User: Fold these one by one.
Assistant:
Number 1:
Amino acid sequence: MTREVSVRAAGAVDGERLQARHEQLRAIGAVGLTGVSREAFTEADFEARRLVSSWAAERGYPLVMDDIGNLFIRRPGREETLAPIVTGSHLDSQPAGGAFDGAFGVLAAFEALEALDGASVVTRRPVEVAIWANEEGSRFQPTTMGSAVYVGALPLQEALQATDSAGISAGQALRQQELSPLSLGRREFGVPFAAYVEAHIEQGPILESVDVPIGVVTAIQGLRWFTVRVTGQAGHAGTTPMGARRDAVAASVAMIHELSRAMTDAEDRVRFTVGRLDVSPNSPNTIPSTAIFTVDFRHPDASVLARLGDQVAPICMANACGCTVSVSETMNAAPTVLDPAITETIRDTARALALDCVDIVSGATHDAKQMALACPTGMIFIPCRDGISHSVLEHAEPHQMLAGARVLTGVIATLASDSAGPAPFPPSSLTLQGHKGRG
Ligand SMILES: [Zn+2]
């Protein structure tokens, strides 16, 4: 019975509608022919939210927002007092990002609501589309800001006070959002969900390399961020003897070299990146007095994440080359294991739809990682061309998006249906204690 409903709902997914909505969305903040620039809380981000909100209004789906700007679109269920099954992702992008990262998950989620309508499925539980605010964290740190605030992992005031490079706070930027004339209710943080399922492009090369359309995400790898500040002494490049220098860039290069040697493993699962190096005074004929660089370090295994990550500060200290070094850890997110029952539902649904699937660990972080602190959570990946993401070259084929949206719809129909809905969610566990216990 549940399977029949699931397959029927998935069959009502409309690939042409999905593609048309994708084209409408990618035109907002378009960069060239393929990319988008929709950083969080910019006019382009707000316009994208208005567009999806207008689709909700056309369908008569109620819309609510919370104080960090997360939006929720609701398709009512037969028992409206039950916690909803929630699906979604984000509409903000990197400064020169792709049209699929986040946007695909929102489009597939909205398509799921429309497909449930199209198949005349009345679900027991309500189904909601979540549009999480500021997932990317490129303009305002940290990443996954909206979902982190929602589950209580990040205090609202701290999030609102985050500033961009121009000194504008997230709170100031968010106040520019004008969603009217849509009627918009308010939502408190932490309203319980029965389950959360997010569809996303893989942002890596695995699914394409094995030629499988559906990735069943079993875990999201852990992540640690560091900022290393190296302070030396400015001096004239032509007159200061080499032995008398305290060169902040030379010291940074030594540190990064040793870190690169340490941050490896036989299985090639470690991910180590120095993505930012700010030099001062940044002049060709002056010895650098200050260098600040970032470390992004990831691994799916908590013990490796702890062991190697704890070496960052000592390695930097040991390679200071006469400079002063300070290392601060700006993020420490443990690996997340996603809900086994939901991952099994995703596999079942893919099989019922005759779509191949394979288990996969997510290399990127997602709003689903925050939601896993609060409710049973799953993720569905689709391939992206050459594994490229966070780039204007990001691309997924229409048939790949269609397959992902069909599986998502089938999973949502199953979870929200009569016989297979998850156990009611206990509101008391949606607390910081729950977060700590899990993380
Ligand atoms: Zn994303």
Number 2:
Amino acid sequence: MHLWEMGNQGIQNNINQATFSGAMDLFHIHTGAHDSRIIFGDSISNITSYLPSGKVVIITDEHVYQHQGHNFPDFPVIIIQPGEQNKTLASLEHIFAKLIEEEADRSTFVLGIGGGIVCDVAGFAASVYMRGLRFGFVATTLLSQVDASVGGKNGVNFNAFKNMLGVFNQPEFVLCDYSLLNTLPDREFTAGFAEVIKAAAIRDESLFTYLEKNASRALQRDPLVLHELVSRSVKIKASVVEADEREKGERRLLNFGHTFAHAIEKLSGVPHGEAVSIGMVLAANLSVRAGLLDVKASNRLSNLLVDFRLPVKPGVPVINLVAPMKQDKKREDLHIHFILLNAIGEAVVYPILINTLEETIHDLC
Ligand SMILES: NC(=O)c1ccc[n+]([C@@H]2O[C@H](COP(=O)([O-])OP(=O)(O)OC[C@H]3O[C@@H](n4cnc5c(N)ncnc54)[C@H](O)[C@@H]3O)[C@@H](O)[C@H]2O)c1
């Protein structure tokens, strides 16, 4: 059993510096040929115990390196530029050139240390360099701990299309050290709660109630509450991914709020988590319109998002979301599969014909 403490890195004053006295928690995800370990609550200072012997190359971004580079193990580091605008083939080219410079070969292990963008890019780079290297992640944002590093989707944006190029490939491990979140700016930290609330909304009403009761402790970065939220969200995601790794059926439920969110991100450039928050409110409204969800439950969702200081209103007219939604890569033939709620904790797939989408969204407005 490992015990660890929140690092006192002198960041925001309101951060709870309490000692986390919980046990480290190890969780396995099994999909196809792969087994991925999620390590909750261990420290990045123990990372070498999870790495194979031999050559390791770290991939990170500039902000993470600036704030957390002093905690990195002593291996060569490839640094990419931060931000969604750099989740591109150009960043991959930079990584491939550096891997060649470092003489990385088939036995090299790639360690991504960063948020969702680093995980997506590093996982993709490792999956295609020399037809595939072994890789693992240290997730440094709340969003990547609860969602982005788990589930085996790796990829980059292409032209204006989000996550258009990529692969399904599970990391060997993901380490979630909550003390790394201390240097995360407030807005990025808060955005991560959208994916926790999503997990609760689609699968676990008791987690939803826990969130309602513990919003203020969570926002103060109380490590015990973070442990509960991260580990429960990951376990929900894992149960869905294990049943349907390649998103043919049940995995679609994880897209609750995301069809709207991708369109919102494209039009207004708000961070992913904030767009998911607004997207969930729109999807809940649609659920009410479709006669699936009662208004009280829909309001409960909006209230919880507001409690977590997340936005609930799109900054653009809802009707403007139709065009980018029609281009969503998740559209299948004549339909877009929206995820709606029957109740808090219970989601359903609700296909809408593309040619009735405009009318449906008009109705929603
Ligand atoms: N693959 C998946 O299943 C999956 C799931 C959800 C989201 N995503 C993707 O994840 C991305 C969003 O991830 P994100 O919200 O983690 O954003 P991010 O990776 O851009 O990180 C947010 C910002 O915080 C900085 N940062 C990261 N960790 C830090 C730390 N500990 N201290 C200080 N600064 C730090 C980053 O440099 C960046 O500026 C999107 O591209 C989204 O599409 C992927």
